[in-house]
Amino acid sequence: MEMEVQRKLVEQRPTSGQSTRGWYWLGPLYLATVLACGESVGTRVDSVPKTGGRFDEWFVLQRELTLEERGDSVLSGIKVFSELDERRFLVADLHIPWVRIHDEDGSLEAILGGFGDGPGEFRTVSGACSADGWIWVSDHDLGRVSRYTGSLQFDTTFIVPGSPRQVQATRDGLLLDMSGGGARALERLNVVGYDLSVRSTFRPLDSLVQETPYWASFSELEATPFRDEVLTIDEMLYPIEVYDQHGQHVRDFGSPPPSWRRAPPLKFAELAGPRMAGRAQEWLSSFTVMDRIDAYRDSLIVVTHARNMPTAADLFGREQYAVDVYSSHGDKILEDVALEGATVVGGGRYIYVVRDGPPDPWVIGVYEIHVPGR
Question: pTM to 2 decimals?
């Protein structure tokens, strides 16, 4: 069964447009063209953050999950790691179009989907979450959101006007991150109900990123629900922007840590020419980015930083290296806490971190955050 979302997505806050870093739609030919042309409520903490230190000083390991793989049910990579309920997890594969259900001990309980265009099938799984007793899975390539019951049975598909990059649970609905089917100016966030009726649509895009040559092609918008707000980051530019459920900008917070290296501005067509790929790699390697933003227990906010690690095979390669932690008010508590080879993949009741992976089994660390004054 398919249900088409009829209400037009209307932009509430006009701003300048900006791209996704988006390897989903930025193919080699398009990229070449671009390169050639163009906490507790009311609690406040000290404004001076603790800088540096080891991850295990502030993040306390509660347990580890070794994700089961059997037969042909391999896990090629982790696109999404999110909480299904108090004991199970949704794991969207980075390359294979299915969603895995893992139990609290890491055992594989079920797999949702598979390659195809039919009901309950996917071309590209771009997001997965649990909300209102349902499981929601977004498909970027097919431009739709599929809904499964709590008993893991396919229910229905919603066709959306665009290409959803992510679907996340808010307190009483969903947050859809849409790329607009490849049109940079249409990238937007949609707050929707459980019938996918649109409550608000907005574009928290910084004009500086759009107006600076090359920046828009290598920077993605990332967002996460936090209490009754939506936190957004542009990967290449501070600050963190906060919006309410109506799409109205309410505040900014956040500052770069000492390790932050801002992207150098480039002139129009500066990367063009016979050494285009090499110059692009050199430029990307010269700065750091905000790789993701996660909410922790509706109390703390974790921002993960990464170094670009471009190669000829993957111009968008990167490696996480440190995290910052903020209070709910936006006060920075910790900064430049070293990840030491680990990778943050999710938040919620805990912070979830990949501690090991191929060729060894995938191991996820489940962490609590213990910070000064808490």
Answer: 0.86
